[in-house]
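the two lines:
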Amino acid sequence: MSINDRISKLRGLMKEKGITAYIIPSSDPHQSEYVADHYNSRAWISGFTGSAGTVVVTNDKAILWTDGRYFIQAEEELKDSEYELFKLGVEGFPSYMEWLRDNLGSGDTIGFDGKVLSQFVVENLEKKIQDKNIQFISEYDLVGEIWEDRPNIPKEETFIHELKYTGLSAEEKIGKVREEMKKKDADYFLIAGLDDIAWLYNIRGGDVPQNPVIISYGLVSMDKAYLFVNKSKINKEVEEYLIENRVNIEDYDKIAEIVFNIGEDNTLILNKRKINRWLYNSIPKGCKIVNEIDITTKLKAVKNETEIENQRNAYIKDGVALTKFLYWLDNNVDKEKITEISAEEKLNGLRSEQDGFVDISFSTISAYGPNAAMAHYSATEESNAVLKPKGFYLVDSGGQYLDGTTDITRTMALGPITDEEKKDFTLTLKGHINLIDTKFLEGTNGYQLDVICRYPLWQEGLDYKHGTGHGIGFLLNVHEGPHNIAAAPNNIELEKGMVVSIEPGVYKAGKHGIRIENIVVVDKDIETESGQFMKFETLSFTPIDLDSIDVSLLTEREKEWLNNYHQEVYHKLSSYLSEEEQNWLKDKTKSI
Amino acid sequence: MSINDRISKLRGLMKEKGITAYIIPSSDPHQSEYVADHYNSRAWISGFTGSAGTVVVTNDKAILWTDGRYFIQAEEELKDSEYELFKLGVEGFPSYMEWLRDNLGSGDTIGFDGKVLSQFVVENLEKKIQDKNIQFISEYDLVGEIWEDRPNIPKEETFIHELKYTGLSAEEKIGKVREEMKKKDADYFLIAGLDDIAWLYNIRGGDVPQNPVIISYGLVSMDKAYLFVNKSKINKEVEEYLIENRVNIEDYDKIAEIVFNIGEDNTLILNKRKINRWLYNSIPKGCKIVNEIDITTKLKAVKNETEIENQRNAYIKDGVALTKFLYWLDNNVDKEKITEISAEEKLNGLRSEQDGFVDISFSTISAYGPNAAMAHYSATEESNAVLKPKGFYLVDSGGQYLDGTTDITRTMALGPITDEEKKDFTLTLKGHINLIDTKFLEGTNGYQLDVICRYPLWQEGLDYKHGTGHGIGFLLNVHEGPHNIAAAPNNIELEKGMVVSIEPGVYKAGKHGIRIENIVVVDKDIETESGQFMKFETLSFTPIDLDSIDVSLLTEREKEWLNNYHQEVYHKLSSYLSEEEQNWLKDKTKSI
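prediction for all of em together
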């Protein structure tokens, strides 16, 4: 069935249901960053395979909205269909909500599958069109009705994340949630975020590629805790664990019914950005809603001592795999044909040999030369460059281990590099050191720290068009809130125990891409008359390419940080390496 | 009349009007930062003379709320009355709105003078007590009814701020306001901010000490512009200027009537934080309100070329006065008795000798030794320290000139200082240089830059508990929005032409206080593939005390900045100085 045939079938159904415009977003019922194939309706209806985009279809229009990362790809993928591309953030292109407001009239209807649009998005849409008499029709998944070979909702098996990794039992975590509920006089806490639920109940699965979560909902009251899940995913052992921890297991689809039956006059805490319209509509009318970041999101962001100790271990194993890879690459780039994709496979293989390896934590970015100038590059058969003994190779990768989730980026010169490349690498490193080595006052938010990392780049007229750092899960999603380090205000302070990435870069189209990323955990530093100061403890250990550094641009303090870091790298990794690898690492971590 | 007698008279009136609790804030009808004595009802009713505080009186309670700057002073000033002190920001003390919510019941009434509470504050109060049946009574200024020797509303004469200073006529500015109104489909723009009105109509006065504004309201439609003012303040010349610029002059009290008569179905732009409840209530019910920062506030923040050129000149004159003062102090501190207050008088005298001097721009902070550890210190007869030839003296001062408003802080060693003092001074200087010499990407907001200044202090466990910088008026208020440089998010980008202070410090109770403040104007820097970069042009020129610097802590770049700055100081100021002063300045600006 061609894309235009799909549109045409959709229009038939729209007519039947009396829908003027139908919205197909990129989301699943849990507003996950990455979704199972089953939920990729937007890709199926449009042919556009990028990770972010929204489709609106009317009787005579079919439009796709996507952002700057995907303009070229979208143009290519849409060219044989009637889709128009609307470029987000480009002057002259309205957002899809503005477009609906401007192009629909009184008496028209907007349709969407209420299970995949969040209550937050629906309320925004309501506000946008409030002056017009437009109704919503949210009960039909029209794409589902015409998508013949649609992949099933995944049914991967669930496993217990053991206490030796998590440090707290599910029951203890539920107790902490209830303490927070008490502070807000809440009767119920409703959860849709898959990583939040997995964290709370100490269970993991495989329903979303590289994200070890289970498709489920959660509901906690002062005396009950529910997991709503396809019961076929829960084996005897998991069932017993959950019962032992006083968790009731219910069918995935039963969530709306149970929520509906909690009765009026209850106070519910929930996050409208996570709860879908369908589920929100099941809340009894008399209930009071406290809309805020999920309690679990805030609790899980602050890692406990057991989790931190496990993570330290996971990052060493991960550093061993990456170091072995860099050794192999350094020694073979001029001997055999290595492509971006074959390098990626080699690295994935080395990671999978590590103890407790579960999966990689995201699609490896293996980018050579100008390909690395695309910050979110993913090698395809067409783009797959052959690595040569010159210029930069950038690798951004990570693993899911029983004892933690990792994420790290290194950029390495595979041979001679230009002065410009060397300078850009050194400035990136200076930004990295500036931030990773800073003290900061307790109560500081990530947005305050962002510029510390950009500062050395700005002085030379350079900048990177992405955030400086993101939170990271614990055998969970590689991107995890609520904290981050970015220019946009985010009112979450960096607390002791929070894990975050530090990843400045330089990207020059047609030339090269550089990024240096380490993961750190927030810790306490000195207390003075000005207050309690905080610092970062580095978790990731893999050499930073000395051959790419213009040492004359580094301050004494920066050299000292780098030398200390490299000494630690050697100390922590060498015993897991072969003699040849050890010798190589010795040289790669020598003092400058 | 004792304070308790005043409270008792107020309670009599409250009973008469059926008011349960009466609020007396620190504000005037224009929400000015500094108010004319006429509006200092809160000081009169409470005896507390600090600049910020709110009083609530009920039948059996009298409470004053104030912040940490004033706890000691308030305790002292309230001790002979029945007032209780409620400490803002201290655990266990509710805000006055929370207190009213918790202590008033159904059927009670809250009274206040609607002319001095902003619509923003009243709406917040409404939200706080929405669950209770409590009415507002906002039509009585009860303190006014019992305050016998109340100072009059000032009637200082108005003068024209000439075109050679402002660069744009009032009519041109009104035209710019209308352009902005058109973008929002607005019919009217209502203005209460005294500096906004003075800027718009190119007039100045003397109604608020050190703030050359005129007590007035403004109203702009697409074809009319009004100034509401006591007409006795407007002489023939000003009247002619305003008529020439198509400004209608109306009586101050006529604002509500004219607003009421604009009729329904109009769109009004106004700032609820500036418009008082009384005036807001006069808006016809059918009107649409666009609540945002005043158009004039945004326009006036971006100085035009004429204003910038004038400011450069004003800052040189101001630098001459301050440099003469520092020379005098340096040469006389060990010869005659100089106190904080006599030093302040000397400096005010030197400023007043400068061309175009109108007034000082705020009460000079003249602080010796430990007194400077209070960031907002103001010398009194009791605290007035004698300056000695050792330790630090801090002076934060500024002037109102026809060609600009200035603000500058210098800290000088009057003799030997401790190693700790030297280190703290040098770290403050490093922070100052870090920010004043930075490049930053166009579109950057002040909150992103704040940490650049704090960074060197944080690394040594130090911090200052105030913002890094504030905007400054042009022969107007010394604190002017909407931009600033501070940790709290403020969604205003630093545009070319904006003037802002850079003023890091170190404050150690019982020891010393240090602050180094210069004023800068935002300018364009290079454009690269990463975008347009911006920089700061320094406006203030006065030597930074070399004797207080530990040169070994400075980087080469920092030394270079300081040497270049000092060369400019000498170059710009020396021709206005005596030979002795020149020789002194030569030494104080020598290369290090």
